[in-house]
Structures are given as structure tokens and as C-alpha cells.
Amino acid sequence: xxxxxxxxxxxxxxRAQAGMAAAGLSALLLTTEPEIRxxxxxxxRFWESPSRPWFVVVPAEGPPIAVIPxxxxxxxxxxxxxxxxxxxxxxxxxxxxxxxxxxxxxxVPPGGLIGLPDGAETHVxxxxxxxxxxxxxxxxxxxxxxxxxxARLRQAKSAAExxxxxxxxxxxxRAFARVPEIAGAGVPLDQVFRGFQGLCLxxxxxxxxxxxxxxxxxxxxxxxxxxxxxxLAPGDVLMLDTGVVHGGYYSDFDRNFSVGPPGAEVAExxxxxxxxxxxxxxxxxxxTTHAELFHAMHSLTSGGTPGANTGRIGHGLGMxxxxxxxxxxxxxxxxxxxxxITLEPVIELSPGRIxxxxxxxxxxxxxxxxxxxxxxxxxxxxx
Amino acid sequence: xxxxxxxxxxxxxxRAQAGMAAAGLSALLLTTEPEIRxxxxxxxRFWESPSRPWFVVVPAEGPPIAVIPxxxxxxxxxxxxxxxxxxxxxxxxxxxxxxxxxxxxxxVPPGGLIGLPDGAETHVxxxxxxxxxxxxxxxxxxxxxxxxxxARLRQAKSAAExxxxxxxxxxxxRAFARVPEIAGAGVPLDQVFRGFQGLCLxxxxxxxxxxxxxxxxxxxxxxxxxxxxxxLAPGDVLMLDTGVVHGGYYSDFDRNFSVGPPGAEVAExxxxxxxxxxxxxxxxxxxTTHAELFHAMHSLTSGGTPGANTGRIGHGLGMxxxxxxxxxxxxxxxxxxxxxITLEPVIELSPGRIxxxxxxxxxxxxxxxxxxxxxxxxxxxxx
Lengths: 383, 383
Description:
The structure is a homodimer.
Chain A: H1 6-23, E1 27-30, H2 33-40, E2 55-59, E3 65-69, H3 73-76, E4 84-87, H4 95-107, E5 113-116, H5 128-137, E6 142-145, H6 149-155, H7 159-177, H8 189-202, E7 207-217, E8 236-246, E9 249-250, E10 253-259, H9 264-283, H10 290-301, E11 314-316, E12 323-326, E13 340-343, E14 346-350, E15 353-356, E16 359-364, E17 367-370, E18 380-382
Helix pairs in contact in A: 4-5, 7-8, 9-10
Keywords (chains A, B): Hydrolase
Enzyme class (chains A, B): hydrolase
EC number (chains A, B): 3.5.3.3
């Protein structure tokens, strides 16, 4: 796959710097995978290893500066970043923090503010004690939250980003269409999970970052469990919810299957879930509030508790499986062009027995476009 | 797979509480996936979603307390944890932090210390601003680092844990043996990566959490890159380094392959790498220092820079792809029974062209046992 051009990252950096100027920030300090990748293009699964810190500093002007372990220099050197400062890691001393602090002292005047990504979906990827050391070493500069600046900018995707998400969704869609090849009565759920991940890879996923789901008679207990070895049985509803990765961008949607003919309750619940996601898609355009999307779905599915403990019924999607915004009844913020949103209505059929459906849409100037190929009202049937 | 019995988690908790008492900690606050899973058994891929905080409090006495989003209650309810307190999430207010603070105030007297896992491989999984709010809400309790207590306890694995790692390694080993089915001259590297992940699933991996590698004429540039679409060519050395997951435990080792007959330099380098890992395994027993393992390998491979920018040549392995300890020349700490260690010697053949080999051993009372089936000195050849 062709990497994004440097102009993509330069545009992101310029938008961040405009926001930083408005907020009085002299620099941004990035410490986590999606934040660093968003401004550099640095894509590696090596973040699975928690042993080394990684830093990128976005200065008030000019391109970002990478302050990273030497093991990453070769790969970062293939990005648009030219100022790459490396430290030995792991190491017994504070040389990594010292190099970072030196960089921050160069870019931020005494008394200046260093912004850290803040709000939902963020954390500072540093050991507890190192964080105190870094504050000491930066001398008269102060760390403050960025007020959600980085998250807000990431919410509005470029056309190039949406293309990757659409491709990831298409890959997952083709894999879902092939579920009858690997699942049916008598097949243990863990074997279904393995087989489904194989289908995703076969259809072109770079990797399968997420697979959860459930199976049970007439519904399932939750949507986050790993698979058990219990064989599928007639009357089960099987749900698979996957995040496949293509070029660093995620899909996130699910599909439900009835093992054998569905009962009336399951068939009707599925039709309702499909109607709910379609109702939300129909009103989705720039200006629609997140709460309006919530209510468009919840008004159709509200037999159970709101969100049936999921706490929201949809969210942003892109470089991570879940991003802001959250579709919640009190969210008065509005959709903006370029947002990619999952619509994830849930029905609680009885206490501890739910069905969840999920689709993906992109917000365009005049409405919304499906990125997932939307499921039909009739639940798919496995033999 | 059978879950660990409650006695496994009770023993872990008792060991933590002994360490807490010695360190004067009234509670431990856990916020990350491996820490929470270690004390509860809570296993889900849902951590891929960064949108919600999760907390477990280990009190001075008695079982841990889960303070988690409602979406996790069903799955946590299947663990040995009985005290499960849930909050709505995502939410616009501080109710999650308030519930956590209430729990901490119950368990920790005013003036008491709350330990946070600290040191390499740790972070506090909370947004920047939430961390300040939590400190305010806990009223006269102080957060301190745990001095590496949690990490140190996790380093010595139980027999049940080592069994899972051994199974993960066996799965990866069977997949490596089948690489000739999916790789050879003319096959694009990204297709090799997809095919290899499929083999891992086919051999029984729950999921493939990590795959990196490289391919290039006579060696590769780094060990953390994702795949490109470049086809393998005769003379290439292909390296695949994978972390497959079985029951929540990882493998982590690699294999090298020569596309067509290897040149003398590559053949010799491979033999040297194998000799290095065997030399380290031969001296590995309780009491051997991490530095001694380092030097056992490095004395054979030291044509290049120490560690050729990887910064260490081996590390702990278990619930994460990489854990402490690190095999570094200055690490005077010693191996202990139950440690699982990767041996990862590297040779720099020329600037920017390296070969890396990796095996996994478990430290037993009287020596070390291979968990990976060790590679022979002769590099495997693909047609």
C-alpha cells in the first residue's frame, strides 16, 4: 500500500499548530501509538512491546521531532520526519527523559506550556516515577492538557484515511459473507473465532486486531468475551464483532447469525436493530448531534435499559478500534464532515441476553455514506 | 481451555499483600490490562478499545475489588472476584473516578499510601486531567510507585503459566515449520505475513498479537517493520518474529529463512546466532545474572555494535510480548525459578543489515528448559 504523502502529515501538523497557537501551547508532547502515528506515519506492531518509551514533540512551527529508542530509527527514517533523536533503551538511567527534556527546553521558552493529549481515549505512556522526573527536567515549563485538541483534529478524517477505513470494512464484509464456511451447529466457538480470523486474513487484512462476540440460545451475555470451547447449538445466536486493520486503519462492525431457523423474537429483534441503524444513518449529516443519532436508534430499541450497559450505541473509528465521539443521549456536539461513526444499537431481550448490531458510516457534506455494506433485516442463518 | 483455579489468583494476591505490607502500602491500584488480568483472570480483547477506564484495587487484606465499566460486569462476574462495582461509561462526569476514590478511601486510611505499578513496562492508564481529579478525590491518601513490586512478582511464573507459554511456543513452532507452504521467491512479503498469521491460527493460536520481520538481500534493516509488498527474491534472508496468544499467554521468538541457498556470510551468521542462544541457555539457572546471559551471547556475536540498536538481547515473556527483566550488560540481578526468558542475539553484518535469532527458555531449579523447539544451526532454505 502506498504510504500517505508528506503533504498529509504536513497538513495535520499545520492544523495542530493553529490549535496550539489558539490555546497558548508552545509544544505538544505525544507518547502513544495513534498520536505518534497521526503526525509521523510511523506504523509498527512493535507497540505490542511495552518496554520502551516513544516520544514525538510537535513544536509551534516546523515539522515534528521524534525522540525515540534507537531500535526505531531505521523505520522512522522512512517517514517524513527528518529530526530523529535516539536514545539507548532499555537503559538503567534517565537518558531518554533527559534527551526529551532537552528537546522540550529548546522548543518551549521558560514559563511556556507543553500540551498533552487529554480527555477520553488518552493516557500518558510513561511509568509513574518517570513522569515526575520529566517534569523536574523540563525546568519552568508546565505540562497541561490539550483540551482535546489532538482528539478533535483526528475525528475529521481526510479522504485518504476514509479510503483505508472503507477498505478495512470491505475486507471484514467479505469475511462475514464467508462465515457459513466455518461456522454451524456443532462447531466450537473458539474454532469459529480462529476460522473467522483466517477468513479476514485471506480477504486481505494486514492483521486482526480485534475479535469478540458471543453465542447463546436466543442471544448472548456480553459483547466483549473471548471464545469458549462450547459448540454452537441450534437456536443459538452467534455474533462476531471484528476490527481488522488495513494500512493502520480499522474496521469495527459486527454480524449476527442464527444457528438454524431463528425464533420469532430473534428475527424481530434483528429487524429492529437493522431499522435502528438505518434510521440513524438517514438523519446523519453535518450538524446532526450525537444525541440525535442516539435517540434515532434508541427510540426503536428501548425495550431494555439504555445502551444495555454498553454505555453508548456508537462511536468514532479510524486509527483505533474506538475513538471519539461517543453516541450518548447527552452529547450535544454535532457531526462534522469526515467523521467516521459506528452505529451500534443494542436490544436487551431479557436480563443477561442481548443482541447488538453495528455498521459504519462516513459523514459527507450532504449526508452519510455506508462504509460497511449494510446487513439486510433478515438475520443470516447457519446450518 | 480451563481457566486458572481461584487458588492461583489467591496465591498471587497473598504474595502482593506480603510485598505491600513490607513496603507500607495500604492498597495497590491497577489500571492496565496485564496487571488487572494477573489478579483477576479477566481476559478480553476489549482493551483494544481505549474509551473506558478499568480499575482493580488490591486491598491490604482480602480479595481484589473490581471498579469497572458496566459493560464488563458480565465477564468479570465469571472470575473469582466477588466485589464488582460498576460505573456507566463513557460518561460526561466524574462518576467513575468518584466510585474509585470512594473504594480507595474505604480501603486506605487517611495518610495511607496507594501503590501504583511503576518502572519499565508500566504506565497509569488514565487521561492526564483525570489523574489530577483522582488525586483530589482520594483526600489525604498519597499515590506512590510500587518500587516494581507487581512486575517483580509477575516475573516468576507458576507452573500453570509456564504451561500456557509452552503451548503458545509450540503453536508458533508448528507454524514456523510450515513457512515453506506460504513463502518463497516471488511471494510478496505482505502475503507471507498474512499467510503466516493464518498458519498460526490453524495451529491453534487464539489470536496473533504480534508479527514483525524483515526480508532483504543478505539480511534486513530492522526487526519491527510491518510488511511491504516487495516480493521475496533469491538471496534474501526472511525473518518472521511472532507473538501468538494462547489462553492470554504469549510466545515470542523468530525464525530466519534463506530464499535459495544462503551465502557463506549468512550461513555463518546463522550458525553463530544459534551457538549464542545455546551458550546462554547452557549457563542459565537460578543465580545466573542477566548480564552473564548477555555476555554469553554477545561474546560470540560482537562483530557489530552491542545489541545493534535493539538495546538488549533478550527479555521476560508471559502475559505480554515483552516483560522484564532485560538482558543488558549492566543488569546484575539474577535469574529466579519460574522466569521465562527470550534469548535474542543479533549480528550486524554491515550498517543497516542485521540478523536476529530468538528462542524461549524457562528457568527451573537446576537449569533451563527450552520452551521453543530450538532451531538447528543451518538456516532453513525456501525455494
